[in-house]
Every structure is written in structure tokens, then in C-alpha cells.
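Running co-folding for adenosine-5'-triphosphate.
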Amino acid sequence: MSDLWRRCLAHLESELGAEELHTWLMPLQAREEGSALILYAPNPYTLDTVRNRYLARIGTLLEQLDGHAHELRLEVGSSAKRPGKAAATPRPSAAGEAPAASHVHNLDAHYTFDTFVEGKSNQLGKAAAMQVAMNPGRAYNPLLLYGGTGLGKTHLMHAAGNLMRERDPDCKVLYLRSEQFVGSMIEALRTKSMDEFKRRFRSVDALLIDDIQFFAGKDTTQEEFFHTFNALFEAKQQIILTCDRYPKEVDKLEPRLKSRLGWGLSVAIEPPDFETRAAILLAKAQEKGVAIGEDVAMLLAKRIRSNVRDLEGALNTLAARANFYGKPITVAFAEETLRDLLATHAQAVTVPNIQKTVADYYQVRLQDLLSKRRVRSLARPRQIAMALSKELTEHSLPEIGEAFGGRDHTTVLHACRTIKKLREADPRMRQDWEQFIRILTG
Ligand SMILES: Nc1ncnc2c1ncn2[C@@H]1O[C@H](COP(=O)(O)OP(=O)(O)OP(=O)(O)O)[C@@H](O)[C@H]1O
């Protein structure tokens, strides 16, 4: 990463706050070329927002930091690989507006299979997305990736789109968040341009729609999406979708749409395990040019289990602070800098907290959960609470057994194995599990 840009980000962090910084400015990649600073935005939408909201301030800051003015350029693409002509001169698309039929693709150039770290939790999803990219419309259609927030679904979806375009630069890939689909449709209804809307969405080779749970309860949208889906499907055009849970579990999604979604392949993306979290951190650090050792990666991976986005946020904060203070990122520095954040993540994850959360969720009394009673309505939640305790705390099997009314460590081990199997076989159990991980570590 350009040193100048790093210093600029450190200043902007205190002005804008972490969320704004991470949403708009951290995704930019920077390269210095003579006295010019080129900022690469992952897509035209980010480019537009940065230009409108932040560019003037960035210009002033650069001048303050370096004592002289810099030429500042904004482009779509990646600093590692200079963008091709089509990407360098995009037609910016406004928020909520789908790109026009010229098919300026709006994929995030940073999200590729190369930058995606594979682990047990996402192996299947990655393999399926690659298959689809190599064989659009023919391998699995639709491909649906589902799972909790910040686990890499969007990344994989863009990676598939990027690979399709790498293999065939003429391939028309359109990525949209589901709110954008809804927004475009409302606009088309308002301006009586539904024919154009239909044509726009049906003329692509691959349609990628993110977070389709937002379609729930929006009947007209679902109706239109249903027809778009059918048209694309019949013409063997690829459809890739993401959802924050197994679609059959999304309330107020039309049954016939749910059924269509099941025609292809649905793959769960699960929270990464410790080793994958550490590997992701090291890969992200390398990508961003941030020097961290394995010890720091392990510290963060151990303490932040919620999702990859949170891990990345912590890394970004560390990088900005280390640069600001001119210090290396050591374990001590990370512990000091992220003290509050790490404390928040650690706070929720105690055995009593897990027991209470599980009891509340399944509406059973805490004292029953800890009792010796073996009725199924208690036994399953108890097993889940034990398995979560093993997963989320540092306690040993005997300690966990003790905390559950003085049970033997083999009972805890059995619970962990049972829940693992159930998570593999039963989408509902998988969803409950992810929900707990979110509540307890989010
Ligand atoms: N396995 C991985 N390897 C590298 N980066 C990852 C991986 N998983 C997630 N990430 C990164 O984590 C961040 C969040 O991922 P992404 O936006 O794809 O999540 P998501 O599952 O689509 O979440 P949401 O449902 O909230 O949109 C991205 O920066 C992404 O690159």
C-alpha cells in the first residue's frame, strides 16, 4: 500500500469513524506514480461515492501531509493489475440503478478466487462457484450460496463473475444487491419502462443477486424476479444468488420461488474455524501490504470468531494505527490497540452466557437445561449449549461437563459429535448454530 495513502487513512479514521472508513475508503487500493496518487475503486459505485463525498478532503489532506499538491486520480480496478480499457473508463452507475444494457460490468476486481482463502467451512462453496464460472449456465443453475453475514458469499459470487469474464471478456455479468433490483423495478414501474427493465435483466449471460432475503414480503418484486429467473434459466444463462439463510427458511418468500431456488445447487458457507481465520488474516495482511506476524494473526483469530468482516476490520484498524504511530504490529501493540474490541468479543463468550442464550432461544428454563432430566426438548438444547461451549470458550471437556450439572466429559464429547453430525445433515440445525455464533460473538 502507498505510504502516503496509509498516512492519509490514519487521519481520515479519526475524522470519519471506523464504519465509514471501512465501507468506502479501506476498499480502495492506492498506487503512487510520480507525484500522482491513483486510487483504485473496486467498482463504479464506490468510485462515484468516493468522488462525491471524499475526494476534495483527500486532496487537501495529501497536501497537508506532504507539503505539496498531488494529482489525484480515481479509477476502477486494482493497483496490482492495471485495469483494461473497459474497466478504466466505466460509465458510473447511480445508487439503486442497474447498469444499462451496454453491460459495463460492476464486479469488484479485488474479489477473486486467488484472494479467497479456502477452509472446511467454505470449500464446497468455492468449488461450486468455480464450477459455475467454468461452465456458466450448465454446471449448477441457480447456484445459491447461503450463510451468515461477513462469511465470504459476496466475495465468491464476484470471484465467479470475474473468472467468467477472464475466460470470456465478452461475457455479460451483472451483479446487483437485491435492494438494487427492487429499486430498479420500482423506478421502471414509475417511469412505465418495464419492457426496458425486463430486457436489461434478461440480456445478460450471468445475473448475480446478493442477499435475496430482502425479497421477502415484496410480492411484486418476487413476481418479476420469478419471470426473470425463468427466462434466464430456460435460456441457460447463469444465475448466482446469495441469502443469509437457507431460503426455505425465509418467511414471506413465495413457495414457487423457493422451489425454483432449489433446482440448482444450494451450498452453506459456514463461519471459518480457527486455522482458516488465521490464514485469512495473513492473506489479507499480505494483500494490503501490512506486516503482521503469525502470533498477531493467531491472537486475532482466537479472539474474533464472529465473521471475516470483523477480522478484516480489526486488521485495518491495526494497520492504520501502527502507521499513524510509526510502530510495528506486535502482539502487545495489537492487544493495546484493540483492547476494547477484543474485550467486547470476549465478554459474551462464557459458559453461563452460552447456557442462558440457548435456554432463552429454545424457551426452556435455565435450571432445566442444567438438570439431569433427559427429555428430548431439553436434551438437544443442552447438547447444543455444550458444543457451543467447546467451540467458543477455552474450557476443557471436564470443565464444561462440570458446568452442566456435573456431567462426565464423555457426555460433552458425545454432545459435540452429535451436534457436528446434525449440522452437516440438517439445514435447520446449521442455521440455529450460526445464529448462536452470531448472537454470542457478534
Ligand atoms: N475465505 C475468505 N478468504 C478471503 N477473504 C474472505 C473470506 N471470507 C470472507 N472474506 C472477506 O470478508 C469480507 C466480507 O465478506 P463478504 O462481503 O463476501 O461476506 P458476505 O457473506 O457476503 O456477507 P453479507 O451477507 O453481510 O453480505 C470481504 O472483504 C471478503 O473478502
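Result summary
The two ends are 29 Å apart (CA to CA).
The chain is about 55% helix and 10% strand.
Job closed.
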